[in-house]
Sequence to fold (151 residues):
Amino acid sequence: MRANRHVVIVGIALAGFLTASRAQNDAASQKEPAPPPSVTVIGARDAHGVLGRDVRSAADEDMGRIVDVIVDRGGQVRAAVIDFGGFLGVGSRKIVVDWNALHFGRIANKRDSITLELTKEQVTAAPEYKEDTPIVVLGASGSLQPLQFTP
Fold:
């Protein structure tokens, strides 16, 4: 009998909670609708995606392709992850280069590449990028330094 009384009490409490929750949802739905989002139109020639884009050195050496972009906690783009080396995807490794070492001079279509301000030897010496480990970013000066996140 006691167990049945506890079930009834829990049921009444749950019904009261659900009623209060519905009342809050009804009040929230009666608020004014959100304003429409802002819209910006970017011309087809003015901007392009970078993922999958080929990267070449200033000496026109194949440096791989961009496979990811690293942003800090504030949402600022800090670096690019490049799939470097190998042949047909075998033996390649991911390295991270400073975003400022990339030049986007002419990327009118997907066939155009991005220029990296580093040599093949500098990129070859960079440690491999692995998720959930400290990120080592190769800068345009050729020195390896940890990426410092700003709070």
